[in-house]
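Budget justification aside, the reviewers requested a transparent look at the raw inputs and outputs of the sequence design task funded under Objective 1. We therefore reproduce one unedited record. The lines immediately below are the structure tokens for a 268-residue chain.
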């Protein structure tokens, strides 16, 4: 009998030892990091994509035709089109044509001529066509903008509605801006940068100057970097229960000091 008790005691000791040794591996639901529940976001992927776009923007900035694009990527235009003819064409391809680049240049656009404040005033024509910059550039970091603009005067005829008839008021000269020269420029300008950023014209972007803070932020699994405000913040800030506060440094609920807890309880 005593031997049986001894064996049971030994089994109980071994079992308790196993539970104790594994206690640190037990994770309760409220201790699971929100980031662990979803695949980690790789900030390098977005950064690399932006870097590729910024580098390519300067290369393709002045490409305006298919031939120029093919030569840029090291392919002979004659080789591409001769290969297509040798391989034959589908019915769909036979009925299609090569798209042409909408080159960045002045082209006719509809603009209003005049906007009177008096509803009884009517004028003609209400709109006209003048040259304004339009077209596309190498990639999405660039836009077609006016490099040179001049103001031209146009005449319009003005009349006033008298209740039952129109009364001629004469002609009026209205100035309208006309674009005469265009170029592809970065959409993001130096003026778009914040005090904590510097402008990189070759990459068409604003870059944070506090890169050390950015690196430390990315090393913290619970934090995320804001490239606009150049600041680091917790990924999932939340409210804490009584006796705890949310620590922006650790991104976790931490216990309040005893005196602070007493003040909080007395306030309630």
């Amino acid at each position: 009998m005593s031997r049986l008790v001894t064996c049971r005691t030994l089994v109980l000791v071994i079992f308790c030892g196993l539970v104790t040794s594994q206690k640190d591996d037990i994770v309760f639901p409220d201790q699971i990091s929100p980031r662990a529940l979803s695949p980690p976001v790789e900030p390098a992927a977005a950064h690399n994509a932006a870097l590729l776009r910024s580098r390519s923007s300067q290369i393709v900035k002045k490409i305006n035709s298919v031939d120029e694009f093919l030569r840029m990527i090291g392919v002979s235009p004659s080789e591409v089109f001769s290969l297509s003819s040798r391989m034959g064409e589908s019915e769909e391809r036979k009925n299609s044509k090569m798209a042409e680049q909408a080159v960045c240049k002045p082209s006719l656009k509809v603009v209003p001529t005049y906007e009177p404040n008096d509803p009884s005033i009517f004028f003609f024509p209400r709109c006209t066509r003048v040259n304004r910059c339009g077209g596309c550039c190498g990639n999405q970091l660039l836009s077609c903008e006016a490099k040179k603009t001049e103001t031209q005067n146009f005449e319009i005829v003005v009349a006033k509605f008298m209740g039952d008839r129109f009364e001629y008021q004469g002609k009026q000269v209205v100035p309208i801006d006309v674009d005469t020269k265009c170029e592809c420029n970065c959409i993001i300008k130096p003026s778009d940068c914040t005090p904590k950023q510097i402008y990189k014209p070759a990459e068409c972007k604003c870059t944070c100057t506090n890169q050390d803070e950015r690196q430390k932020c990315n090393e913290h699994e619970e934090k995320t970097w804001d490239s606009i405000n150049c600041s680091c913040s917790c990924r999932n800030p939340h409210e804490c229960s009584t006796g705890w506060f949310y620590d922006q440094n650790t991104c976790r609920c931490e216990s309040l000091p005893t005196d602070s807890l007493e003040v909080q309880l007395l306030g309630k």
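The first strand starts at residue 105 and ends at 112. The helical segments are 2-22, 43-59, 66-72, 77-87, 91-94, 211-219, 258-267. Computational costs for records of this kind are itemized in the attached budget.
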